[in-house]
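Pinned message: reference record for Phage tail protein
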Amino acid sequence: MRDAQFLGGEPTSANRFLFEVDGVEIGVFREVSGLQVTAELEEYAEGGENGYVHRLPGRLRWPNLVFRRGLTQSDALFAWVNRTAGEGFAAASNRLVRCTGAVTVLSDRQARLRAWEFDGVFAVRWVGPQFDVDSDRTLEEELEVAHNGFRSKSAAGAQT
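Predicted structure (tokens):
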């Protein structure tokens, strides 16, 4: 375990991630990607200064989050999508309701280790399982959500 990462004295588990929206559990996913932020750079060339160009922070950009999991019998995901977008994935609708979402890393014992809260969450894409009788692969679904930024929170709830 030389390369193990520790969070609060416990090795982190990278196999279960809980997705919640406005406090309602949407489900546990095996993979979450897109947890990053990038600052655009503004360059300013000052007159008379030829040695360098000033580089200033610009707008922050967050990619969409992509969740993957095996197919479940829960209807929580589609209940949320239908409640927030009116007619399913009608993200362009003026009836769109943006929510607060959270992704929480769960330990092997289902303890909450760390969470990230997302502002203005709404679903933009869902991909269902691929059916093939000649394949023994697991049936999976994928959800993509857009958001307007995030905050990191420890298990104790302190924002970082």
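Pinned by admin. Summary line: Residues 6-154 form a domain with the Pnp Oxidase; Chain A fold (CATH 2.30.110).
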